[in-house]
TrEMBL record:
InterPro entries: CoA-bd, NAD(P)-bd_dom_sf, Rex_actinobacterial-type, Rex_DNA-bd_C_dom, Tscrpt_rep_Rex, WH-like_DNA-bd_sf, WH_DNA-bd_sf
Domain CoA-binding as annotated: residue spans: 89-190
Subcellular location: Cytoplasm
TM annotation in the entry: none
Name of the molecule in the record: Redox-sensing transcriptional repressor Rex
Subunit structure: Homodimer.
GO CC, any one term: cytoplasm
Native source species: Streptomyces buecherae
Annotated DNA-binding residue span(s): 26-65
Amino acid sequence: MATGRTHRPATRSRGIPEATVARLPLYLRALTALSERSVPTVSSEELAAAAGVNSAKLRKDFSYLGSYGTRGVGYDVEYLVYQISRELGLTQDWPVVIVGIGNLGAALANYGGFASRGFRVAALIDADPAMAGKPVAGIAVQHTDELESIISDNGVSIGVIATPAGAAQQVCERLVAAGVTSILNFAPTVLSVPDGVDVRKVDLSIELQILAFHEQRKAGEEAAQDAAQAGATAPAPARASRVLPDAAATPATAGAATGAATAPVASADVRDNQGPDGDVPAVMPA
Ligand SMILES: NC(=O)c1ccc[n+]([C@@H]2O[C@H](COP(=O)([O-])OP(=O)(O)OC[C@H]3O[C@@H](n4cnc5c(N)ncnc54)[C@H](O)[C@@H]3O)[C@@H](O)[C@H]2O)c1
């Protein structure tokens, strides 16, 4: 993938930790909002609060970009927008194809946030012949028969998969064979790709499960506080048993929250995506 190695030291693009890269879009979003309000400079504390990150982490992250701010003044908003955009490769146009134009694919196609961040939806592709030629978000859907020529004609390197899980691996293989080297996968399945191909996976049901985990922990903490405030009169074993039933209810809570809020994601999908990670971002490596 073109990342401008000619004008940047290779060590910089390689030396940025993945966790920092994952936070750069958060900084960029906060900085873009400041830029739109014509705010010229921002302190690390203000920017960290706006991005939801701690300020020491932010300063460390920006040191990887070679950006240290000015003491007493802060960071130059416009310059930082440019620096982060360049680091993320957003100073160039990225044509993207979306494959699978059902509920989710159509919603993604209609999302204005891609274009405003440099991702141009070059084509919408679906296997259903009845969809061919139908406009979605102002773009005529094309049949999968044309997938290879669409990729090469538009120089597409990023593909979005929004097909049912069962079709995703085959779609992925066709995309990769046609020249796509980065895939954003919404289908609830793990994709196998050759070396050199990056896959990121989005799973909202996992996010809901993480929220459910925090909800039950908060409930547990509140119960423990109540028990502590109740004081010496209550016997210790009774207090302990008051917290435990909530914790035991966690799996059911997570399942219910997921099923209710993400109707398209079947319960089998949720099981497929449960992993050992304690804190999985909305977009994660596949
Ligand atoms: N990651 C998430 O948070 C999240 C949320 C919602 C849905 N999903 C997943 O996204 C996918 C799509 O969901 P949906 O509700 O839009 O489904 P949908 O049934 O509405 O749409 C799927 C589309 O894919 C097309 N399709 C099927 N096989 C294809 C193939 N081989 N090549 C190209 N197109 C093909 C179908 O014709 C259909 O238009 C599902 O896998 C679902 O589980 C993920």
